[in-house]
Structures are given as structure tokens and as C-alpha cells.
Prior knowledge:
Blueprint: H1 4-21, H2 24-35, E1 42-47, H3 51-62, E2 66-71, H4 79-87, E3 91-93, H5 98-106, E4 112-115, H6 119-126, E5 134-137, H7 140-148, E6 156-159, H8 166-169, H9 172-187, E7 195-199, H10 203-214, E8 218-222, H11 226-234, E9 238-239, H12 242-246, E10 251-254, E11 274-278, H13 288-294, E12 297-302, E13 305-309, E14 315-319, H14 325-329, H15 335-354, E15 359-362, H16 365-383
Parallel strand pairs: 1-2, 1-4, 2-3, 4-5, 5-6, 6-15, 7-8, 7-10, 8-9, 10-11, 11-14
Antiparallel strand pairs: 12-13, 13-14
Helix pairs in contact: 1-3, 1-4, 2-3, 3-4, 3-15, 5-6, 9-10, 15-16
The structure holds nicotinamide-adenine-dinucleotide (NAD).
Amino acid sequence: MPTLDELAFAxxxxxxxxxxxFPILAALGNRWAAERPFAGCVVGANLHLTTLxxxxxxxxxxxxxxxxxxxxxxxxxxxxxxxxLRGGGIEVYTGGDMEDRHAQVLDHGPxxxxxxxxxxxxxxxxxxxxxxxxAAVLSRTGIxxxxxxxxxxxxxxxxxxxxxxxxxxxxxxGLGEAVWQSVTELTGILLSGRRAAIIGYGPVGRGLAAWAxxxxxxxxxxxxxxxxxxxxxxxxxxxxxxxxxxxxxxxVVTATGRRGAVTAESLAHxxxxxxxxxAGTGGDEIDVQGIQRAADGVDHIxxxxxxxxxxxxxxxTILGHGHPINIVLNSGSPESVLLQYSLLGLxxxxxxxxxxxxxxxxxxxxxxxxxxELALQAIDRVGA
Length: 384
Ligand SMILES: NC(=O)c1ccc[n+]([C@@H]2O[C@H](COP(=O)([O-])OP(=O)(O)OC[C@H]3O[C@@H](n4cnc5c(N)ncnc54)[C@H](O)[C@@H]3O)[C@@H](O)[C@H]2O)c1
């Protein structure tokens, strides 16, 4: 078992690699260190605690922010990253349930919040947001939850997702590459020729499907929204119902942002040996607990590879315990995540200076253009 210091060393090494090949955050951090745009700010962040998150939070601190963090999902929390952040003076809360962790962050009186899925913002709104001047939300699930509120929020909330760069962030080069790389890493199978099912055909599902096709897989799509099902059809994918598609699929990936997209009941139709993984939100798109309860046998093939024997006698293997697989494994190129963090940091910097109105705030085009310029410079510097 590696020690925490060894894990932190590995995390530091990983950050060094991202700086060497795509130094976008370093460019931002150098300017922030000189200009200190976050001086006096307390940033409360609820994020997946990966090495890329650590790289971003450290640059934010250089800009003068005091950063306090909670783990948005214990299943995606990297112990080395946590140790590294703590060693650098950033307070990190990983214990207890989600609400305990949020309460610990909010007790520090954050002036700005960064949230993966709107959970920290919801906790802040539930307890009189007091010191909070604004927030930034990163994920589709978070934006959906912001829009579903009947009461408008009392402070501005930056939609750090839906700008023009989104296609570059959630596309086949970003998530597609990362998710399929995780499958080969965990199982050793060759993807070409396999039959994949993609559940949910939003930008994430679409990217996964495109990459799967490019890798030589046969792709079927399950999508409840007829408009997006039609997109899938015109993209050349076969579409069908979950029951139908599961009869043939060898690898099933959820990308719906909804709980229980695949349950023990749905697996009654699955073929023997099916592999299941989640590329969407949280840990409940695949109902892992329900499948565990229904299973007649469990075989732990690897740390993140568990095979269940279903009541039908067929076997189903779940990767990453149903948590977003690319985040669990920190797989794929870090570029798209680093670009998203740059966009977030620039958006936060803009919001602090701009005095935005309460409610959902779109990403200004100037922020997107700046992030894209930095990305192009980072690519150029390494390609030269
Ligand atoms: N793993 C990652 O690194 C990563 C990165 C970005 C986004 N995400 C998450 O991925 C999820 C999907 O993102 P998106 O932008 O594509 O979202 P989206 O909401 O635009 O698309 C989801 C699609 O799934 C469909 N859907 C919902 N329930 C379904 C069901 N039971 N069966 C079939 N289809 C169903 C919806 O109609 C929708 O078209 C979100 O939760 C997002 O937060 C994960």
C-alpha cells in the first residue's frame, strides 16, 4: 500500500506532466500571481478531487484566493490529491456525508462558490447564503437544477458550461477518448468490432458514440428525447429501446445525468458478459446497489472491476462502481478539463469585477475568446 506522501508525489508528478504538455493553467497562474484578482476572496469549491482539480485550485490560490474545498463524490476522490492540497495550505473536507462536507466549507464564510452539480449552492441557499456574492456551476446536472428552481437565486450564478467552447470540451476528443481509454485500461479488450450501447445522446453521449464508431465499434443509441434520437439516427447510429439494445450490446455506457438509467430489472434482457460503465453524473445512473442486491454472486476481478452473476445466470461487469469512469481513472488527455478550468477561472475573475445581476449568468464571449487564445498558445508552445 503506498503511503499518502507517495500518493501526493504521484499527484504532483501528474500535474507536472500536464504543465509540460498543455501549460494553459500555468499561463493563467503567472498572471494571477502578479495581479492578485482574487485577493480577499474566500472560494468554497465542491469538486471532483483529481490532480487536475488540484492544479486549478493551486493557481487560484496564487491569485490571492483562500480556497476551501469539499469532495463532490468520494468515489472520484484521489487520496494523493487531497494530501497534496492540504500540504499546500488548502482546507479539504472529504469525510461524513455530502451535507457535512458542505457545512464545513460554508462555515468558512465563502464569498464565491464553485460547484460541480449544484449541491454546495443548494446547501448555501438553504442556510441563508450570508457572505456569498456569487457562484459558478460546471455541469449539465448543475445547470438543470439551477433552472428547475422556482425561487431565483439571490446572487449571480455563472453558467460555466454552455458557451461556444462546449463542443471542444465535451466531444469525442475529450470525453470519448477518456472514457474508452478507461475501458481498455480496466479490461484489456480490443474495442474494434465490439457492440456498444450509449444511453443518452446529449453532447456527452454523442461524443462517446462518435469516438466508438471511429474506433471500429458498432454503436446503438437509447435516447428518450425524440429530437436527440433523430440526431442519433442522422449521425448514422442505430436507435432502439433499452430492452432491445441490451439484448445485443457488449459494452453499455450511461450518459443521461439521470438516476437509474440502467437497473437490475433492465439487465434481465442483457446478454451474458455485458460490461457496464457510467460517463455521466454521480454514481447512480447505473443502479449498482440494486444490481448488487439482486445478484446471486459477486466476483471482484479488480479494484474497479466487479462482475455480478444475475438471477438470469448471465454475468454483468460494472466498471468504476458506477462512478464517472474517466474521473475515477483520471484517464484521457487532460486538455479538455484544463480548458474548462481555465474558462471557469477567467469567468470567476470576470464575475468578481463585473458586478453581475442575480440569476443565471451566461459566459461572456470575451471570456471564451481569452480561454481559447490561451489554449492555442499552450498548444503552440509545446508543438513548436
Ligand atoms: N464524465 C465526465 O467527465 C462528464 C463531463 C461532462 C458532463 N458529464 C455529465 O454527463 C451527463 C450528460 O451530459 P450531457 O451534457 O450530454 O447532458 P444532457 O442532459 O444534454 O443529455 C442527456 C441526454 O440523456 C437523455 N436521457 C435522460 N434519461 C434517459 C434515459 N433513461 N434513457 C435514455 N436517454 C435518457 C436525455 O433526453 C438527454 O438527451 C450529465 O450528467 C453531465 O453532468 C460528465
